Amino acid sequence: MFTQTIVKKPGKSYLQGLTTSNLGKPDYNRLLIQHDSYIEALSKCGVDVEVHPADEKFPDSTFVEDTAVVTKDFAIMTNPGAPSRAEETIAMEPIIKKYFTTIDHIEAPGTLDGGDVLQIDNHFYIGLSSRTNEQGAKQFSDIVQKYGYQATIITLKELFHLKTGISYLGEQTIVVTGELINHPNFAPYKKIIVPETETYAANCIRVNDYVIIPEGYPQTKQAIEEAGYQTIAIETSEFQKHDGGLSCLSLRF
């Protein structure tokens, strides 16, 4: 069960943020409405939502997941792979310290984005991407193993982040798409396969009794519901324009 979440409002500088999507310029007013809907959805899931103001110095800082990995036992401050995001962790660490007494760190030259880290029970999967390098992944693996967790490093060929293509719903069930569908490391899990026409919906989040999913992906929504999960669908179009998904927008623990 999650009890706490941390989110950060998007600032106007978000419009100048990083993107590879080629989906056009975000609408700032619509962006704020969608972020409010995200907060409402988290609240419906029964968690406290700690909302922090926008940080205009860092256009991408609403994507708080990339700055830290938090669990019920420990927290790790990352070292984001995009140079313009590297200092986002400085503002986030005092927030994390309110909840965790011991915090580990990914150190340069290692880089690691939280979006490349998937936790399935006591096992972490770490994606090697354009944002997470081998040094960062190895550091993360070493840290979690000292807490008694397992770690597996996976090289990504197509996905932006690991969690762009996979989510864990609990009960040994994953939502998965693209290059990860037949990946041997995920063979033991029950799979909800996202069709190629709905790949964006693979990034969803299980928060207690609900799975929050992006609006507009009916096949994936139906498959998740048929697997026995209640869903909350919200609009995320303005975050998608900057490569962002549902998991990116919060830290959940």
Strand content: 15-25%
What class would the helix/strand composition place it in?
A: alpha/beta
CATH class: Alpha Beta
Report how far the terminal alpha carbons are from each other. Answer: 8 Å
Biggest sheet character: 3 strands, mixed
Shape: globular
Helix content: 10-25%
Second CATH tier, the architecture: 5-stranded Propeller
Read across the widest sheet, the strand sequence of neighbours is: 2-1-15
As residue ranges, the low-confidence spans are: none
CATH topology: L-arginine/glycine Amidinotransferase, Chain A
Structural features, described:
There is one protein chain. By secondary structure, this protein is α/β, with parallel strands linked by helices. The chain has one domain: L-arginine/glycine Amidinotransferase, Chain A, CATH 3.75.10.10. Helix content is 21%, strand content 25%. The strands form five sheets. A three-stranded mixed beta sheet has the order 2-1-15, covered by helices on one side. It has a three-stranded mixed beta sheet with strand order 3-4-5, covered by helices on one side. The longest helix has 17 residues, at 28-44.
